[in-house]
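Hi V.,

Quick status before I head out on leave. The structure for the redesign project is tokenized and pasted below; the design run finished overnight.
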């Protein structure tokens, strides 16, 4: 650890001005709290960048701003990245790759202002880029003993070592003969036939952990087909209004709840959804054209300025009950009667487990729907730590109980100026399997486990929705032994993949035979550990 008594506080932020404006008052409050905490421990601090009177905030909002800020920092100085809102990790990952001093990622633990989501993404992005760092989170910062104790440790040693007792090495678990057989057979099939992963313009929203080494993915039988967003828009333009209307009619017949309005700037209107149906058809055409096994569309960068949101499309693709699309070249239906795994935001770290879980579900003749969620927030309820898992709309209707329990709301206008609908609902109760694939320090791995979706009282569900984003799907997830501090200490992404039913042993076996190292999170790992 450096002997310097000065710590730099870097406020990383969103690309989007409304998000930075909305989050700045809380950021100012947190910066003051952290300064006070550092002062109590005998350290001075300097915040970068400085408050910008024109933009009315002091966040980094571009990578070039990050490089400028770090050019003013002693390369050996301790740096704290203060995260109170969603922030684009690549604003600071580049500068940190050449920074020699200790690095701490510090986040609030709040649902409305998702700094914890940003911390998990920043940490996974730095792991992907081989940058050593520490994590710390809090609800109250300077008045939180957990926070103060760990901050003092970091200032003294340059690192925080959280307990990893909640993780079980996959090599130490005992698997059933049936799971071993399924895993071995599927691994052999995947290696022989390959599963092509279609990824549109990776790196959406600064998620460097979503950009993985194609050599490592190809080596386990999942080569990447890199696709272009502009080509997706071009394909949408080839889908007729008549064809798009058929897909919309299907959803209406199935009882989907569209929350229509008349003001396109703030409400969901017909033309937005018709455009979304064209994107759905275009995505299916890409699956057929390139022989894809999974596909990932990163909305925001690029597409947000061209077409309505991709989220309703994502939920449709991830659902078995979806409109049939015919390839215009072959006239054949695209993956009839199957889900087409869609990894939201182009995050291939979610796409890999979604694909592998689909293969297992189909082999076991179980419902094959999966989705990723953000690890958005969580809190105690009835003696259990219950996570709020939430994503902007990629969850399949099957997870809510079908189209009749699915709500299509307009995406918030601040982040989705061209509108478009979500695919929203409350995830039904039941046992689920979770997973996350990652690349860290030049190795690939899979974390996984099991949990239970809980059916909470309506008032509690609404409280959680109003504290986060009520337009989006929500899962109230209990993962025994993988509560707040356990997950925050080790989870390798802001995203987590879920599917209903316990297929943990089969997933571990499949990963083993593909050569992917595994860790089991929480009590599920302890239950499987060899005696």
């Amino acid at each position: 650890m450096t002997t310097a008594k000065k710590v730099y506080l870097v406020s990383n932020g969103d690309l989007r001005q409304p998000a930075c404006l909305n989050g700045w008052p809380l950021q100012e409050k947190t910066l003051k709290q952290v300064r006070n905490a550092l002062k109590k421990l005998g350290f001075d601090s300097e915040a970068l960048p400085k408050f910008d009177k024109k933009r009315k905030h002091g966040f980094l909002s571009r990578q070039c701003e990050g490089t400028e800020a770090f050019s003013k920092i002693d390369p050996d100085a301790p740096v704290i990245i203060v995260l109170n809102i969603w922030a684009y990790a690549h604003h600071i990952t580049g500068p940190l790759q050449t920074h020699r001093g200790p690095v701490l990622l510090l986040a609030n633990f709040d649902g409305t202002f998702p700094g914890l989501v940003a911390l998990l993404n920043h940490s996974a992005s730095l792991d992907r880029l081989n940058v050593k760092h520490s994590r710390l989170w809090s609800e109250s910062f300077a008045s939180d003993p957990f926070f103060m104790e760990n901050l003092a440790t970091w200032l003294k040693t340059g690192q925080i070592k959280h307990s990893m007792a909640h993780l079980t090495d996959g090599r130490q678990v005992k698997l059933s003969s049936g799971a071993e057989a399924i895993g071995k057979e599927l691994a052999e099939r995947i290696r022989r036939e390959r599963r092509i992963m279609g990824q549109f313009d990776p790196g959406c929203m600064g998620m460097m952990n979503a950009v993985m080494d194609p050599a490592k993915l190809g080596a386990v039988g999942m080569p990447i087909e890199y696709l272009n967003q502009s080509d997706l828009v071009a394909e949408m333009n080839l889908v007729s209004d008549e064809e798009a209307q058929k897909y919309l009619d299907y959803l209406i017949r199935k009882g989907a709840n569209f929350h229509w309005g008349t003001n396109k700037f703030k409400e969901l209107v017909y033309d937005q959804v018709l455009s979304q149906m064209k994107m759905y058809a275009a995505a299916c055409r890409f699956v057929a054209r390139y022989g894809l096994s999974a596909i990932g569309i990163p909305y925001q960068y690029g597409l947000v300025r061209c077409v309505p949101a991709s989220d309703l499309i994502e939920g449709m693709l991830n659902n078995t009950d979806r409109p049939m699309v015919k390839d215009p070249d072959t006239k054949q239906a695209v993956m009839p009667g199957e889900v087409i795994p869609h990894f939201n935001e182009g995050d291939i770290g979610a796409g890999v487990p979604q694909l592998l879980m689909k293969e297992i579900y189909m082999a076991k003749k179980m419902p094959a729907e999966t989705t990723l969620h953000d690890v958005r927030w969580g809190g105690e309820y009835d003696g259990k730590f219950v996570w709020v898992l939430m994503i902007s709309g990629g969850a399949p209707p099957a997870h809510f109980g079908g189209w009749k329990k699915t709500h299509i709301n307009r995406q918030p206008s601040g982040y989705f100026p061209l509108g478009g609908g979500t695919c929203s609902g409350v995830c039904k109760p039941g046992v689920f399997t979770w997973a996350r694939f990652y690349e860290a320090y030049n190795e690939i791995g899979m974390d996984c486990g099991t949990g239970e979706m809980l059916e909470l009282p309506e008032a509690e569900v609404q409280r959680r929705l109003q504290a986060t984003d009520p337009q989006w799907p929500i899962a109230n997830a209990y993962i025994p032994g993988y509560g707040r501090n356990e997950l925050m200490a080790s989870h390798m992404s802001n995203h987590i993949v879920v599917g209903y039913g316990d297929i943990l042993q089969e997933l571990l076996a499949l990963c083993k035979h593909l050569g992917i190292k595994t860790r089991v999170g929480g009590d599920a790992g302890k239950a499987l550990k060899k005696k």
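Above is the designed sequence. The first helix runs from residue 17 to 40.

G. will cover questions while I'm gone.

Best,
W.
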